């Protein structure tokens, strides 16, 4: 089975990068890597084999035939994700089970035992939740909070 492309979102597409990660689609955000210069972005994409996502028409033209590039429109993240899933044949699960990648850094989320997060989350969060996930890279802790229906709704719109 062909591995889905890993995307690099330029500085204009931070929201899109977060949504792709929430949906489990591998994505690097240029700002997280400290990359802001067009040439650095192109070098990064060449080195890692990333598909560049940008709203910058000059960068899009500069990428030319060096890097596979998608010029994104200024529409909603829902429409942007739908365009990408269609263009690259990316499959999203029928039901949203929760993020598998850290929205912050893109690291893999791993289920952790409740006792391991005691004192690391607010007491009320600890009390009200039974399951927690932790990013293997940045250590950020996640749980099924009040925002989860919004994530499910977003998934339903784009799947």
3D architecture notes:
The protein is an alpha/beta fold. The protein folds into two domains: 7-88, Rossmann fold, CATH 3.40.50; 99-143, no CATH class. It is built from six helices and seven strands; from the N terminus they run E-H-E-H-E-H-E-H-E-H-E-E-H. The chain has helices spanning 14-22, 38-48, 57-63, 77-88, 123-128, 148-158; strands spanning 7-9, 27-29, 51-54, 69-71, 109-112, 132-135, 141-142. The strands form two sheets. A four-stranded parallel sheet has the order 2-1-3-4, sandwiched between helices. A three-stranded antiparallel sheet has the order 5-6-7, with no helix packed on it. The longest helix is centred in the middle third of the chain and has 12 residues, at 77-88. The two termini are 20 Å apart. 29% of the residues are buried.
Distance between the termini: 20 Å
Order of helices and strands: EHEHEHEHEHEEH
The chain-level mean pLDDT equals: 89
Examine the secondary-structure arrangement and name the CATH architecture of the largest domain. 3-Layer(aba) Sandwich
Structural class: alpha/beta
Number of domains: 2
Helix content: 25-40%
Main sheet makeup: 4 strands, parallel
The CATH topology of the largest domain corresponds to: Rossmann fold
Give the strand order of the largest sheet, numbering strands 1, 2, ... along the chain.
2-1-3-4
Low-confidence stretches: none
Tell me how many strands there are.
7
Gyration radius from CA atoms, angstroms = 17 Å
Taken as a percent bin, the fraction of beta residues is: 5-15%
Q: Compute the number of helices.
A: 6
What is the global morphology? globular
Please identify the top-level CATH class of the largest domain: Alpha Beta
């Amino acid at each position: 089975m062909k591995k889905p492309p890993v995307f690099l979102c330029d500085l204009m597409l931070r929201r899109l990068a977060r949504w792709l990660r929430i949906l489990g689609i591998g994505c690097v955000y240029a700002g997280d890597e400290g990359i802001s210069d067009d040439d650095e972005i192109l070098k990064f994409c060449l080195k890692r084999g990333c598909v560049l996502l940008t709203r910058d028409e000059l960068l899009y033209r500069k990428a030319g035939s060096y890097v596979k590039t998608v010029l994104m429109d200024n529409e909603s993240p829902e429409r942007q994700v739908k365009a990408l899933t269609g263009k690259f044949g990316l499959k999203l699960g029928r039901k949203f089970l929760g993020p598998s990648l850290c929205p912050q850094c893109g690291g893999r989320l791993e289920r952790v035992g409740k006792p391991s997060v005691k004192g690391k989350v607010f007491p009320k969060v600890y009390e009200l939740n039974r399951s927690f996930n932790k990013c293997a890279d940045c250590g950020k802790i996640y749980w099924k909070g009040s925002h989860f229906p919004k994530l499910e709704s977003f998934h339903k719109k784009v799947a």
